[in-house]
Specification:
This protein is mostly beta strands. The chain has three helices and 35 strands. It is globular and about 60 Å long.
Length: about 450
């Protein structure tokens, strides 16, 4: 007696659900016997396969590796300790995993009605989202809304760490979202990216870094970096991507030697399961560290692939396999450079490979500016103006907003900080300034 139609269709659905990435599978074999139910199964399979491929064409596919994991479609992903947030092309958010790495914990829930989201950030046990209107929303492991600073608007980037959370405004100012946290210098300007883990990292437009919350040794190492275009803060670990595609870092595990042609970095949130990753320009992903769930210390390279983004949690790491038209996952910010100084522009995008880039200056294409990073060195006043980038693939083209580069002879990058001193005590002020040639200083009191 043949298998019932309902059982065959159920088997079809279960079979398809067992494949995390359909494009990684070359064929499917079913024991068809040419009966009506078997023919129905074939039709079901073909329809489901077609619908799945069509869904993948509009979004990138989530793939994960590690102790646990999840799948689905997204244009951006952020991993926390043992959970992940996935951003849909329509501005909605989905989640998977749990807030802790212990069995029996309830799954992560997304607040109902959440929409118009353009970026997601997952912390150890909470979440942040950036909305299209420049506002920020968040919730903790219990579903409670995060208390955010009053009047927080014009935000273009967010970061969630172990116990620290940051927002970057369109004017290049960094805002701590944690009450009483003043680790980063007040008045820090010209910042183009932020990252949060055990400590906080702010990346400046000239490729230098300001860090806090780390050991003195690591803070000093970070402050000495130059030509940096991306930063990633993890749990007692950090990575920095240089303009030449090489990587610097510090933490539990030594970075594999000879890393080059890297376009994205992800420092792990884990203190036990602990794999960090880099994404290379050819779409391959390299992970290294300690695989708590089996394998011990390991270095794994998988690809060639079609990966376009990566994220490193603790219980698992994630990558997006490119699909659909380009989607910009970062924004260009206005920035300032000194004469003969340096300015870096970098854009992040997902979508089907190959992704092609064309930078523009005042609306005109810049010759040979066809990478995700635009490096301007020895900047001159004539390079002040409006910069943008077109990202394209066979499925479409997207153009970033314009960012204005201002060129000045001298600027203060970290202003003096307020001091509290006892009567007859000592107060010491300092300032960080940049400019072409030797700088002279004149301090003032009450103007």
């Amino acid at each position: 007696m043949g298998v019932t139609l309902g059982a065959q269709i159920a088997r079809c659905i279960m079979t398809l659900a067992s494949f995390r990435d359909l494009r990684a599978s070359t064929c499917f074999v079913f024991p068809f016997r040419k009966g009506p139910a078997e023919k129905a199964l074939l039709v079901c399979f073909m329809l489901l396969f077609a619908f799945t491929l069509r869904a993948q064409e509009s979004s990138s596919t989530v793939v994960t590796w590690g102790c646990t994991g999840c799948g689905g479609g997204a244009v951006a992903i952020a991993t926390g300790y043992s959970h992940a947030l996935m951003l849909g092309r329509d501005g909605t958010v989905s989640a998977c995993g749990t807030y802790t790495f212990f069995q029996g914990q309830s799954g992560v829930q997304v607040p109902p009605g959440l929409s118009n989201v353009i970026a997601v950030a997952a912390g150890w046990s909470d979440n942040l989202v950036l909305k299209r209107d420049g506002t920020v929303a968040g919730w903790d492991r219990f579903g409670n809304q995060t208390n955010l600073p009053t009047g927080l608007t014009n935000v273009v980037a967010i970061a969630a760490g172990v116990e620290n959370h940051l927002a970057l405004r369109a004017d290049g100012m960094v805002v701590s979202l944690d009450a009483g946290n003043t680790d980063l210098p007040l008045g820090l300007t010209n910042v183009v990216a932020v990252s949060a883990g055990s400590g906080s990292i702010a990346l400046k437009a000239d490729g230098t870094v300001v860090a806090c919350g780390w050991s003195p040794e690591w803070s000093n190492s970070l402050s000495e970096l130059t030509n940096v275009v991306a930063v990633s803060a993890g749990y007692q670990e950090w990575l920095a991507l240089k303009a030449d595609g090489t990587v610097s870092g510090g933490g539990f595990h030594e970075i594999p030697s000879g890393l080059s042609d890297v376009q994205a970095i992800a420092s792990s949130f884990g203190n036990d399961y602990h794999l960090s990753s880099v994404l290379k320009t050819d779409g391959t992903v390299l992970s290294w560290g300690f695989n708590f769930c089996g394998g011990g210390y390991t270095t794994n390279l998988w690809g060639p692939s079609y990966a376009v983004a990566i994220s490193a949690g603790a219980a698992f790491n994630a990558a997006l396999i490119g699909g659909g038209p380009p989607f910009l996952t970062s924004s260009l910010l206005n920035r300032t450079a000194t004469v003969n100084g340096t300015a870096y522009f970098r854009i992040e995008a997902t979508g089907a490979r190959p992704l092609r880039y064309q930078w523009q200056f005042n609306g005109e294409p810049i010759p040979d500016a066809t990478n995700s990073v635009l490096a301007l060195t020895g900047v001159q006043p004539g390079q002040a103006g409006r910069y943008s980038v077109n990202v394209s693939n066979p499925s479409g083209t997207v153009t970033s907003g314009e960012a204005v580069l201002s060129v000045v002879p001298v600027m203060i990058s970290i202003p003096p900080q307020d001091q509290l001193a006892f009567v007859r005590g000592t107060a010491q002020f300092s300032v960080v300034a940049q400019g072409d040639g030797a700088l002279s200083y004149q301090w003032r009191h009450n103007g």
